[in-house]
Amino acid sequence: MTLQQLKYVITVAETGTITEAAKKLYISQPSLTNAIHDLEKEMNVEIFHRTNKGIDISKEGEDFLGYARQVLEQAAILEDKYKNGSGGKKQFCVSTQHYSFAVNAFVDLIQQYGQEEYDFSLRETQTYEIIEDVAKMKSEIGILFLNEFNEKVLRKLMKANDLEFHPLFTARPHVFISRRHPLADHTIITNEELEAYPYLSFEQGEHNSFYFSEEIFSTTERKKNIRVRDRATLFNLLIGLNGYTVCSGVIDRNLNGEDIIAVPLQDESEMQIGYLTHRRGMRSRLGETYLAFLKEYLKD
């Protein structure tokens, strides 16, 4: 097994075809196919299923690719340390629910380690995909919340995927609303006062279960519901429609703008925000640094 072979299979997995991977790697298709066959034979694993329509990644292939990504990442770190800083592109990926502190920590990480070449990914995505990304080791870290309602289901899913949850902080529920919202001058807001306004939430795609909701009180019946995919759309609708969403209360004006404020919600519930890691994964220097920046933003 060589690092080159590992790079080959990861590139095939990312492109989805031997043809595209070969072009990207600047080698012939037969050479790439033979290299993958040799690796599968040596490691006694079938990474890809071959079909008439192309290739699919097998279940054991997903596990293998997770470890392969880690090996290449650690190799790059070694080269960076011992070969005059020429370890090639630094790679790092984090998957997260829509939290401004996660974005800010990511910015700090790039400013410290970006240099001339890097390949970093920040995936603000759906809850199930966060768990899946860390399980497959596509992301080293995943950020989400647990509470009394979703904890049993999500912890069961984490256990099944060999993941570990690390608490960062406990938050009381707040609502994000426009500074010009009719309730903006309130020091605390009740659910009853919010009934007349549109409720905004992040849709969860195929896994649109209450347990995967990014917002607490996901089972509460509301008259007006709007589901969106991204942060910018949600904030535009908060302002344009006097909508609201339920959140942790951690807000960043530089990122979210001056027009959005957080007001405490009158409720006794709590949300435990933390990060996921794979139990068999190795924490990289980039991962450690990202977490250090993350914790800096949460000190207050």
UniProtKB/TrEMBL annotation:
Matching InterPro entries: LysR_HTH_N (IPR000847), LysR_subst-bd (IPR005119), WH-like_DNA-bd_sf (IPR036388), WH_DNA-bd_sf (IPR036390)
Residues in HTH lysR-type domain copies: 1-58
Organism annotation: Eubacterium ramulus
Record Gene3D superfamilies: 3.40.190.290, Winged helix-like DNA-binding domain superfamily/Winged helix DNA-binding domain
CDD domains assigned to the protein according to its UniProt record, in alphabetical order: PBP2_LTTR_substrate (cd05466)
UniProt GO cellular component terms: protein-DNA complex
Family statement drawn from the similarity comment of this UniProt entry: Belongs to the LysR transcriptional regulatory family.
Gene Ontology molecular function: DNA binding; DNA-binding transcription factor activity
The keyword Zinc appears for this protein: no
Keywords: DNA-binding, Transcription, Transcription regulation
Record carries keyword S-adenosyl-L-methionine: no
Source taxon at top rank: Bacteria
Protein name: LysR family transcriptional regulator
Taxonomy of the source species: Bacteria, Bacillati, Bacillota, Clostridia, Eubacteriales
